Amino acid sequence: MHDLKAIRENPELYETAWARKGLSGKVAEILDLDARLRAAQTALQAAQAERNDASKKIGQAKARKDEDEAARLMAQVEALKATLEAQAEVERETGEALKAVLSALPNIPAADVPVGADENDNVEVRRWGEPRAIAAPKDHVDLGEGLGLMDFEAAARMSGARFVVLKGQLARLERALGQFMLDLQTGEHGYTEVSPPLLVNDAAAYGTDKLPKFAEDLFATTDGRWLIPTAEVSLTSLVMDQIVAEEELPLRYTALTPCFRSEAGASGRDTRGMIRQHQFIKCELVSITAPEQSEAEHERMTECAEAVLKRLELPFRTMLLCTGDVGFGARKTYDLEVWLPSQGKYREISSCSNTGDFQARRMNARAKKAGEKGTRFVHTLNGSGLAVGRTLVAILENYQDEGGRIAIPEALKPYMPGVTHIGGDA
Q1: So what's the pLDDT on residue 48?
Q2: Which of 101, 212, 312, 351 has an alpha carbon 20 to 30 Å from 175's alpha carbon atom?
Q3: Is the dihedral of CA 13, 14, 18, 24 positive or negative?
Q4: Exposed / middle / buried, residue 223 (Cβ in 10 Å: 0-12, 13-18, 19+)
């Protein structure tokens, strides 16, 4: 959600930012609706004041036994009732129209976000690790199926496309990855582990900018709830409609949960393998901060996600997304892209975003300093630390040998005691 006062005071900023996303003319539409809403509110208040004044005078007229005047005033009040109902309806309809427009408009990018049209204009910030030399690398599907531990056909029979069954040591590796990520983020990076609901209501989905724009990408239940596309929704909603003590900020939460996405907007993309699935496991990071803290927290969160890849010794690069590629709710986003030998390129494995007060305004999440009366909206941040399935893919491909065995990264050996390789005799 956007600050109407800020749009009134700096319309050029918003018009330019939205125009870059093909949304020209939105500021004029907003200001017109805003003016109409305020006019309706003023008219409603004037009619209410007139009614209250007339009601007061009815009592005075009756006290002095002026029945004619009392009758006239009563007729005036009755006539004002229709006016009040009409003005209230205008206010309601205009307010809903304004909210609908504002809800559909993306966040404004931060000043240091590079201008660009799409992912080709993203800027590489840093790179870590050197890709291993692997002769004729196999992709994760051939590796997993070759081990007899990855079954897409069985998953398709029971669930359809974009699902997988992992068995044996691959299922164990997936579990080890999730536990490793949680332990790292809680034990070393200070995140509080949360076990949140996987089903949320409209308010939670709206507050985290998933509704109404991304309804088609979500799975809905028959009782009006939504399966979470990421634990960002549940974790950020911990402060929905709350006033938190500013002295307690930042709040840092992490959760390892299944995630569910219909991938309606990704038809035909990454149809092979585990890169883009309807159900996957992810370790999510969420921070709730004071406005002055969010930029530094964004850098810190990105480093916490990078730490997972470093510990697993997976080559990656960190990309700063341009204005044309940054997500709907984000002011600024870093993508981590891990090296996949079979594709000979880096692929996204994490996004870390600062949404500013965009989500906080939608969910009415505020902070208050001790001893002060006023409140202000918090800033919210979210990131993947990491997507477990894509990390599993990266390990399979980067740790393969010529015989199709998969070496276990050193960081994961404590979680898989006695296992040095998947496949073969080891």
Answers
A1: 86
A2: 351
A3: negative
A4: exposed
For residues 260 and 384, the answer to whether their CB atoms sit within 8 Å is: no
Residues 6+ away with beta carbon under 8 Å from 245 = 367, 368, 370
- Candidates 51, 162, 252, 261; catalytic one: 261
The answer to whether 132 is a known catalytic residue is no
Is residue 237 flagged as an active site residue?
A: no
CA distances from 255 to 43, 106, 134, 263 (A): 49, 26, 34, 22
Other CB atoms within 10 A of residue 418 CB: 6
The residue annotated as part of the active site, out of 69, 174, 313, 348, is 348
What's the rounded Cα separation, in Å, for the pair 170 and 210? 32
Q: Is pTM beyond 0.85 here?
A: yes
Tokens of 51: 């009614």
Active site residue 261: yes
Catalytic residue selected from 8, 127, 175, 276: 276
Q: Name the catalytic one among 351, 361, 366, 384.
A: 351
What's the pLDDT tens digit per position in 88-110?
A: 999 999 999 999 999 999 999 99
